[in-house]
């Protein structure tokens, strides 16, 4: 079967650049939306040029110019959007409604993967304010996709390893301490950590796979389903030293939201649901409209938590 042509939107972003690399590595003709708003952001321009050298096509298009989006979408079979959705950086999830309109108008797209790549928003109806905005906005986009009858795959990637393992699951840290750690509650709630390059590899695998059509694909590498305590133990083994541990109760954690900036509060609520509630692991994947990536693609030699953490030594 011929491989689909892919357009990546948000291709210079934290996840987007990995999607570009994975798409090229898996042999897809790869297009990247190149936005005029890039201005004089030299880092982005250099990154785009290096992708071009590696064989990607740059397509000019802007969210302020609907026809340019339609034209870009018409070039490909599959559109993957990795637009920003982390409030401490930027949150543009609803801009995707313009992309959905463009895909609908173009009428040629065989699969759309919206910017999701985290907790499954469909399972977060109960989420706390203000963090629920991420899930609510992602559900607005899903509704638009489904109303427009656009074939889709939703990728639920669980915890980006850089954010969660980097800080030993402590919000506000992305480099692991060699001295002390705050455990969230008893530190025994299981979460799932995925190397961002693996997220990209699995995502690209889904795009031509009929088993992923109109499904949610959860990325749950079995060895990476661990509690915060287990993550800390792995780090302690790597550095050959025990960390001093203190614990933050659920009540203290929630009380700590008050007085924080809005963007920080959003992030803290996400940590609350992952690390106290266990929202990533407290359900079974149903096997009908939900599938698991490491089961679908056993050939992917995913990065274990221990291997990921070695980079911080
Ligand atoms: N599960 C987790 O732990 C986790 C962690 C982080 C993120 N995520 C999810 O992953 C997805 C991608 O997030 P990210 O952190 O990779 O994003 P990011 O690096 O912050 O941004 C990605 C891209 O969004 C585009 N963008 C930003 N503002 C824009 C605007 N005003 N108009 C048009 N495009 C704009 C830019 O694309 P250009 O390249 O065109 O400039 C940027 O490179 C989100 O859905 C997010 O929620 C999950």
Automatic annotation (TrEMBL):
EC number, as in UniProt: 1.23.1.1, 1.23.1.2
Family: Belongs to the NmrA-type oxidoreductase family. Isoflavone reductase subfamily.
Assembly: Dimer.
Keyword Oxidoreductase set for record: yes
Organism: Juglans regia
Transmembrane segments: none
Protein name, per record: (+)-lariciresinol reductase
Domain NmrA-like: 2-309
A GO term, aspect molecular function: lariciresinol reductase activity
